[in-house]
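Protocol step 4 of 6.
Sequence for Salicylyl-CoA 5-hydroxylase (Streptomyces hygroscopicus) entered exactly as in the expression construct, tag removed. Do not edit the line below.
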Amino acid sequence: MKIAIVGGGPGGLYFATLMKQLDPAHDITVFERNAPDDTFGFGVVFSDETLGGIENADTVFSEAMASRFARWTDIDIHYRGERHTVGGQGFAAMGRKELLHLLQERCRTLGVTVHFRTTAPDVEALRAAHDLVVGADGVNSAIRARYADVFRPALDRRANKFMWLGTDRVFEAFQFMIKETEWGTMQVHGYPYSGSGSTFIVEMHEEVWRRAGFDTTQDTRFPPGVSDEQAVDRLRSLFAAELAGHQLLANNSKWLNFTTVRNERWHHGNLVLLGDAAHTAHFSIGSGTKLAMEDALALAACLHENTGVRSGLSAYESERRPVVESTQRAAQASLEWFENIGMYTGQERVQFCFNLLTRSRRITHDNLRERDPEFAARVDAAFAAAQGCDQVAPAMFQPFRLGRLELRNRVVMSPMDMYSAVDGVPGDFHLVHLGSKALGGAGLVMTEMVCVSPEGRISPGCPGLWTDEQRDSWKRIVSFAHERSDAAIGLQLGHSGRKGSTRLMWEGMDHPLPEGNWEVVGPSPLPYGPGSAVPREVTRADMDRITADFAAAALRATEAGFDLLELHCAHGYLLSSFLSPVANRRTDSYGGSLENRLRFPLEVFDAVRAVWPAERPMAVRISATDWVPDGTTEHDAVEIARAFATHGADAIDVSSGQVTKAERPAFGRSYQTPFADRIRQEVGAATNTAVIAVGAIASFDDVNSILLAGRADLCAVGRTHLYDPHWTLHAAADQGYQGPGAIWPVQFRAGARKPPSSRTDAIRPRLSLLRATPPDQTVHLRWTPPHEPAPIA
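Step 5 output, structure tokens:
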């Protein structure tokens, strides 16, 4: 093959060396516009997984890298005057200039042609003259821009300002330095990369940056290689304590906003994007160099394994894209955490550290317990102490007081529509469904949405509370839960609005009924989506009638004995559609501004709260975002939550979406938790309102991690309870927990111990020799350079 590579950074050079090793006959040319020694930045960090791949691919290059690595396992978090150290992480770093020199030398040895100080020829000419053209020309890729109609890039410019700097202070470990200033929170990401220097990245929100006066040079265009010396001098003064008498070094250092790069496609004919040209991930979870070199390894392998360039490029994108997207999801969570770091600076020290460590959801409580058991134990003890609990237990099994309701644990069985009622009356199915979840250990079991009128149903199979017969059937279910378990049982009350009169879920979710349908209503005559019924716009008389229906249903819920009532203001149903600008286009006092859109849902809440017993808590479920442009945003959600809290809500149950069929949710593990987190930090603490997180929370480890980090007070788990009705009790058994937070029904106690599997009880041979090495040495390994180390404050 004849290959042209545009960009002589680590990704492009490493790809060239790999292809030459796979077939020395390949004719490979690299075009790099900078000189060989024009290296911007300081250190780069690699994971053990990436290094394993490099070792397998090229032992010569791997050994050369390994001899230059700074290695350590610790993270130091400097917060509110204290340093907290967490071990067991595993890092390897080296200077970027050293890495490039090694790759350049490897290219020379293998016979790769590299043109420095050379602008690449026109890409169309390259494509015509080569079998393969690789666009490794970085985050501002000209090749990507040239074919934007094919690659369809999305460039997400983030809110934080950062500057890449270095220092001759040699850190012993990774450093997170959280600095509270008169202008707001600033943070440093620091790590050693050699025996003589460390990377020192300063980051802060743009508002903090402006308040601190760093915007004085924002209109100055610095040539390549020229640093913003005015800002650097100011940072030397601001971070004098962190530098501890050492220098702050600049190298093409200027204020930047991180841009997350995503592309719908990575290849076009015989042209492929690699590294930052194809994708970026925030520096707080790793390095772009690491991702680019992983790309290079995968691309070389796929080209070698497949016949023809195009099939190789297709295989490369299919293999690599899921890995990159997973990394980008973690990076997105991490960068958003640092953008919002000011929300957390009031947290207790140990909780803040745990929150920081678990920000991307890649490190969890269970994972941390394996890496550093001592610190994980401190996190558990600090959480128990903060809750006023004498017993240290998994966070999910700590009790919680919701208003005047005592919950034995923090697991909520989330509302899930079952479409199995007859004329709105719940039957034996609901008794078994909800009863099994109460027996299964959840602290709070929620019904599906129970409708306030026949016209307020989603489908003919939805239950209601508009008749005494329905009330009595619910009372039977509630009584079973109270008599047979310690679970509380809550009612979710709602009205379908424009999403009503549809088929049962398994007959066509959200599809209108073919016959026997009823009129649907909404704030405006706008259908939920293509093919949905057009709702009639509700009048003031309709609002009065619907409000009365809610109050009447709440009275029946009281008589049925429910412990909690949740008002359903999410998922595009009637009250949710009033809140959303996508569904509410009214021009009267119930439309327009958020204050107006809140008016009717708050009227309903007040009417229900007036008849619902004061000693029983009330919750509200909201959709924190509509996942469409011009819809409800997370910032709106904070104000919506604040309004309901002010009116007396004891809890906000934070979901998202399902307001319009045009939505584009960012699905992923615990993907809605950041919305709950923001509401808890900005509303929950100030108003003493509990926050419930929900959305793809599937493991007890995730539940514990969310609670320990202070992102929510309770966790609602839905589909997992359908898979395993005894999920909470099984989680207790898996964690070795026995206590008041997980009480097995007496009839089931014989099954409280996890059944043995094959070879569980086998006697294992001794395969290692006990040595005198201190037990924590592998947990806490700090970088000690081969000469006298710099002092550590």
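Step 6, annotate. Residues 309-339 form the longest helix (31 residues).
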